[in-house]
Amino acid sequence: MKWVKTLSEPEIGVLVQSLQAVVVKRPYIIFLSGTLGAGKTAFIRHWLMALGVHEHVASPTYSIVQTYTIVDDTLHHFDCYRLSGAEMLYDMGVEDYLSDNMLVEWAENGMDSLVKPDLTIDIAFSSDDDRFRVYTITSYTSDITLN
């Protein structure tokens, strides 16, 4: 199932709340794709804020993964931009993360060969106005129904 929305940055919070209401399967895996600067990390920041994380959220480009503990749940934010394949993920012990929730930027650089997502979110600049982004959200599981 696919869902397409065009939103400005302030509207991302509403999209996040809508998605969090339907992503009830645990653990979940969400891949985010888009060009540099499209808003992948901004989306993840909104996702974490909606879960109650109020610390600074930055893309873990150099560390590759940042882990957040939310009440009794764990979420790993991966940024695979610098990776050249799954071998680098194996070297860092990615198996230890696979039983928890994951938000993955640049999954096509290795993570997509290790796990399949429940949801993908492609973020693109709007051709009409660069203050807006086009979010193409695809669900790969019957556990997540997009309306």
Strand-residue proportion: 25-35%
**Helical content, roughly?**
10-25%
Over the alpha carbons, how many angstroms does the gyration radius reach? 14 Å
Flag low-confidence runs.
Answer: none
The total beta strand count reads 7
Query: Order of SSEs, N→C?
Result: EHEHEEHEEE
CATH class: Alpha Beta
**Widest β-sheet, arrangement of strands:** 1-7-6-2-5-4-3
Count of runs of 4 or more consecutive helical residues:
3
How many distinct folded domains? 1
Coarse structural class: alpha/beta
- CATH arch. level architecture: 3-Layer(aba) Sandwich
CATH topology: the name is Rossmann fold
What does the main sheet amount to? 7 strands, mixed
Q: Rough shape?
A: globular
Structural account:
This protein is of the alpha/beta class and 147 residues long. The chain has one domain: Rossmann fold. It has three helices and seven strands. The protein has helices spanning 12-22, 40-50, 86-91, and strands spanning 2-8, 29-33, 65-70, 73-79, 101-105, 119-125, 132-139. The protein has a seven-stranded mixed sheet with strand order 1-7-6-2-5-4-3, with helices on one face. Helix 3 links the parallel strand 4 (73-79) and strand 5. Helix 1 crosses helix 2. It is globular. It starts with a strand and ends in an 8-residue tail after the last strand.
Question: Could you give a short description of this structure?
Answer:
This protein is an alpha/beta fold and 147 residues long. Helices cover 19% and strands 31% of the residues.
Present the secondary structure layout.
Layout: E1 2-8, H1 12-22, E2 29-33, H2 40-50, E3 65-70, E4 73-79, H3 86-91, E5 101-105, E6 119-125, E7 132-139
Parallel strand pairs: 2-5, 2-6, 4-5
Antiparallel strand pairs: 1-7, 3-4, 6-7
Helix pairs in contact: 1-2
